């Protein structure tokens, strides 16, 4: 198992932009930064086996989730643990998978299982990624 922690608000993949004769990836800089941060945890050679990837995206709570006055700093009762607004979880997952192409795996087609969650934190926002060899049972012929 490989575990990676990337501090900072989680990033989502932004849609490619097309123009006359050009294509622009607005997430290119963010993906490059993400890849540089995780490089120290990368395997010597990119993996080319079926993989399971777990991702937890920790977002800062908005100010409206906290009390005021003597309750400042305390989360109001009834505030959800789960982050249910944008960015969408599928765009967060795609950002991570694309960012780690060629570093952790040869291509993200080797990722055969994913599990992901978007949650709030009162601590440091971050993205945690865990990479495992896929544990699906082998099919018999």
From TrEMBL:
InterPro entries: Endonuclease_RusA-like, RusA-like_sf. Keywords: Endonuclease, Hydrolase, Nuclease. Pfam families: RusA. GO terms for molecular function: endonuclease activity; magnesium ion binding. The keyword Oxidoreductase does not apply. The keyword Zinc does not apply. GO terms for biological process: DNA recombination; DNA repair. Gene3D superfamilies: Holliday junction resolvase RusA. This is Holliday junction resolvase RusA-like endonuclease.
């Amino acid at each position: 198992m490989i575990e990676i922690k990337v501090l900072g608000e989680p990033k989502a993949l932004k849609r490619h932009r097309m123009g006359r004769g050009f294509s622009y990836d607005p997430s290119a800089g963010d993906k490059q930064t993400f890849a540089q941060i995780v490089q120290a945890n990368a395997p010597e050679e990119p993996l080319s086996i079926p993989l399971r990837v777990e991702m937890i995206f920790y977002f800062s709570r908005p100010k409206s989730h906290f009390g005021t006055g003597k309750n400042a700093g305390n989360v109001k009762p009834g505030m959800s643990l789960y982050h249910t607004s944008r960015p969408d979880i599928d765009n967060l997952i795609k950002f991570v998978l694309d960012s780690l192409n060629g570093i952790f795996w040869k291509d993200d087609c080797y990722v055969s299982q994913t599990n992901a969650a978007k949650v709030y934190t009162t601590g440091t926002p971050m993205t945690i990624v865990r990479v495992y060899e896929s544990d699906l049972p082998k099919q018999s012929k």
